[in-house]
Protein 1
Amino acid sequence: MKGLVFRGKGDFGVEERPKPQVVRPGDAVVKLAKSTICGTDLHILKGDVPTVAPGRILGHEGLGTVESVGPGVAAFRPGDRVIISCITACATCAACQKGMPSHCATGGWVLGNTIDGTQAEYVRIPHADTSLHRAPAGVSEDGLVMISDILPTAMECGTLNGKVRPGATVGVVGAGPVGLAALLTAQLYSPMKIIMIDVDENRLKVAESLGATHTVVSGPDAVKRVMDITEGAGVDTAIEAVGVPATFDLSQEIIAVGGNIANVGVHGGKVDLHLEKLWDRNISITTRLVDAVTSPTLIKLVEAGKINPTKLTTHNFKFSDIEQAYSSFAAAAANKALKVIIDFE
Ligand SMILES: [Zn+2]
Ligand SMILES: [Zn+2]
């Protein structure tokens, strides 16, 4: 079979690899129908993620058909159409029992990281019973791929950790795919205002079409604009969806008294914490790696039409053109790219 292989910093390409097999009783092998590229994959290519060894097939998001299952798999059978979770969960270790499978002792984020991932014709999924979800029929599969990672990430690390409440004001710093997914999930909780902040005016236009009540172009007067919109109070929830010092700083500057800064961004360097300004402001700061525990609920919400994740996808590429898909996604602003779907069928 073919897979997209990380060969080392800045070096990757499609290679011929042996088709994965069931190794442990709980494994399933899934034939991919759709995959996608994540910002995390770009970090890996830059050499920012040392756990990814050269030779690894990338990808932690996807949807496909179960090809074979080990004797320990009870919930899935060959032929089942499934969504692959970016988080592999054993369901029995201490972390899983705390509801934190992101830190599962024998799982967590392993796909396209410490084991071969989903940018390939086939993938082996450990702990299949608790790491796959049945794909509902009659729902756009391009949308369902967003259940693999960005929708639960936005929901858990952003909306839920940020305690978005009815009537509240929310600021989302960063209108990339995850920031826009946070915009979709935050609306489930009926905030009064959702302010999207980004440098890219095209993404802000998309945000308006997805329900943002206000947009702010990132720049020297961004804080003032947010303060004007919130009548000087700041936002009750600041969702940091980029992962660089400037956006974390901005989140600290716009947070209201009693507010919650929910960090979603993947940070590669240190940031300054302005406790000299925040110590008496009754705020909370949360961090989280997605646990994907809200995925079953999100699937129902997509099925019911309460969330339409197809609005987060902008491009489709055939798997044979995956290297071109990477170039398009890497130059996202120039190509007006949000999520890029890879089609195998
Ligand atoms: Zn991802
Ligand atoms: Zn576990």
Protein 2
Amino acid sequence: MPQSSLPLPPGSFGLPVIGESVSYLHSPAIFMEKRQKQYGNIFKTHLFGFPTIVLIGAGAARFLFANEGQKFEMTNTPSFERLLGINSIGVVTGAAHQTLRKYLYQAFAPRALADYATTMQNITHRYLKRWEKMETLTWYPELKKYTLDIACQLFIGVATESEEALEKIYETWSDGLLSIPVRFPGNKFDKSIHAREELLAHFDKLIDQRLQHPAENQDVLTILLQAQDEEGKHLSREEVKDNLLGMLVAGHETLTSALTSLCLLLAQHPDVLVKAHVEQEQFKFSEPITQEDLKQMTYLEQVMKEVLRMAPPVVRSGLRKVLEPCEFAGYKIPQGWGVFYQIQETHQDQTIYSHPEKFDPNRFNTEKVEDKQKPFAHIPFGGGIRECLGKEFAKLEIKLFAALLIREYEWELAPRQNLERIVLPFSRPHDGLKVKFRKRGKLV
Ligand code: HEM
């Protein structure tokens, strides 16, 4: 059938101008669930000013990844673009995106990761001791500090502990990402733009210092300043700064979410925690933990995969614009519309995952490997040419954190807290996960 005579996917555009954005923002999970039940795995809606098609499932993700850059292209709201910067990898498209990715990848290649592991472990030990002293804590904000500390140390060689001001400026900047993009003096968006300028000025100083005195330890900033293409061309200063900023957000909010979910799910599933602890007992004398050790922790790997399946930090992709008309599953996808693929719902597919609502790391053991039934069934990091650039960095940090935590500590959920999951901008429990925390065996 010619594309033009295919129907549009089912669904509704909602109200004029605002479309269905309000109900989506009110509860993205319920919004998706209701429409998926009503219309199936492909439907149309109207979000953030665009007629939009929502795609759910491994097949749909595969279709989008295969056509990324040809039929689809990343697009951002004007506020996002203003705050991230025009040189950011999240904004740049086409051939320029691919070139930029090659440069940035140099900071996340295996050799670079091996250098980061020791710093990650030192910072982890420091925080575990801090939480032990605190005895009761709300973990989400603590984990946010922890992941920001790691990101600042490894990306720009700065300890946020000694630079508390930096943490505050960063928070103001990131608050603006979900604000209304109208600027007037003193509003959230305006403050966020100022914070961006302050952060970039800070990066400028760091770059000047680095150019005069190269750092002893390789961090992301050093690697980006030295990165070259085949012709020996370097990234411009503006490219380095915009991408450092983007990586701070991409690299620490997502990890905070993943680690919080890991701690919550392990507290709710003591049987899994016991098994993970037994595995760690075999390695407890090996420190610092090497990449080789991590490879052998197969149960920990399964736990991490299951956490990222059940509670993916990013629940849906960034918005893509349709560059040329195409079709999927018997429906037309018109040029100029927006398209999203859904990570959360794809991970709940009953035809792939048995009892998908259950937390069960065994589904990824070598006999079952449920996710291998279809390509792109497990997509916490997206896929294709825009797959998460920090995927291996993130996996390293999650596993090191989990191994050190499980070896020596235990925690229990404090009573009377709301654990309901909020998914925007990143997945987290409503009250931030309140726990009692102590060294193993120290019963209170
Ligand atoms: C558990 C942690 C993380 C998760 C779940 C995650 C998830 C994702 C997802 C789903 C995408 C693709 C979005 C799309 O298709 O629209 C993405 C892209 C990206 N991520 Fe991550 N991420 C994580 C950690 C990190 C870290 C540590 C970094 C490192 C700085 C990072 C840097 C990036 C970058 C630069 C992109 C854009 C890639 C491109 O457009 O070419 N992420 N991430």
Protein 3
Amino acid sequence: MIGLLRAGKVDALSDRVRRALAAGVPAEDVLNGALIPGMRELGEDFKRNRIYVPEVLIASRAMKEAMALLEPALIGKARVSRGTVVIGAVAGDLHDIGKNLVATLTRGAGFRVVDLGVDVSSDRFLEAVESEQADIAALSCLLTTTLSTMAETVGALKEDGPDGLKVAIGGAPTTQQFANEIGAHGYAENAGEAVDMFLRLMGDGA
Ligand code: B12
């Protein structure tokens, strides 16, 4: 599967994912055993200039199709509402694969998730946390150049957002230390830990 993902073979990869699921392979195993390692390899090659943006885009499309097939199994049958999470990638950031994964697993854990997409301004976040009566705002960024935007957005949400709103961050260049520095209530390194962190924030929640 990793080879098909990296080659961006959408149909062949989707076919393999469908067959794996039909054979009883858990969706989590497909994700953690093939798709995520595949994206990691791709990132390494991209960093070393062995591949370029078009190849990454083609592989990303295959990743998204494969994730769409896994989504029903990852979401399961959760129907209780544990709270509302408004999620998005901060302004200037167009990476959404990791954010989408966080959104999927968070839905799977029983949260209502409102996904604002990518390149989301502070104002748009503020508007959405109000109108959706969010418990948690979850911000994603993948670029070091958007870390400062993330800090500004966290500041705006804490300053002007509704009382009791929790603000959480994540994405490859972020760390717990950075979260502490910018005053975010929560940080997690990956999608699985993100769900635990959101549950913790709701437990602590106002
Ligand atoms: C795919 C990809 C792209 C695709 C994005 C497609 C898409 N729809 O997302 C395209 C080709 C568009 C792209 C463009 C660019 N990219 Co790019 N891209 C990547 C790549 C290869 C993989 C990212 C990915 O999807 N990973 C897989 C997912 C599952 O992991 P993840 O995103 O880290 O998410 C996990 C965690 O971080 C966490 N998480 C994520 N969000 C959140 C949010 C919360 C709240 C929480 C709790 C957790 C959490 O949980 C997720 C799941 O476990 C990375 C390399 C890498 N290793 O990350 C480079 C990378 C991020 N890109 C990079 C660059 C430089 C760019 C460009 C500037 C390239 C260019 N010259 O144009 C542009 C910028 C576009 C923009 N304005 O955003 C650099 C960033 C360097 C830096 N330090 O800033 C990287 C690191 C590559 C590299 N090594 O050089 N990119």
Protein 4
Amino acid sequence: MKPELKQELVKYAKLLDKKGFVGTLEGNISIYDREEGLLYITPTTKRKGYLEEETVAVLKNGVQIGGNLKRSSEYLLHEAALKARPDCNAVVHSHVPFLTAYAFCNKPVEIKCSTTFLIAIKKIPCLSYGQPGTPDIYHGIDDALKESNIALLANHGVVCVGKDMESCVALLETAEEVMKTYFIATKIGTPYNISEAEIESLNVKYHGNREKK
Ligand SMILES: [Zn+2]
């Protein structure tokens, strides 16, 4: 087991708690050490701000081998996300309000009024409903995470993947912030879409290709 990965998990758990992105009963994060096949994940029903190295749960092939508290019940979701994206080693599952509101509506997100969204996110697919803590929760995750590093879980919340925890958290906070502003914008008026030609120009500039989405 690697103490530095436990420290990394504790650091980001505290940060997400401070930002109000995870609660005692909601949200969980994990880091995967692919070399050792070890998953470091937050424990269940523990305030993330109070997390310590010894309370980080460590799993090997789904079996807990470390940590003095029981692993999050959503470890199956984390394992499925990491299996779907072998290029990623970090997962954040959260119930942040603006993104989760879309999940409550079973509505994928694809907006064209935000340069940040078009450059950094492009699309947020929505998985169909599955009961929390069961394999049903990640049905369709392979396809969803092929399209995006972030996906909604219908009637539940959101899941993000990243090559490391920093990029994973950055994506979640960016997506939540954009959707918060989008919501405010819809109260002011009708958000104005960037033209298809300008979207293509953004794609060429930031991604070096001519894809439209
Ligand atoms: Zn959840």
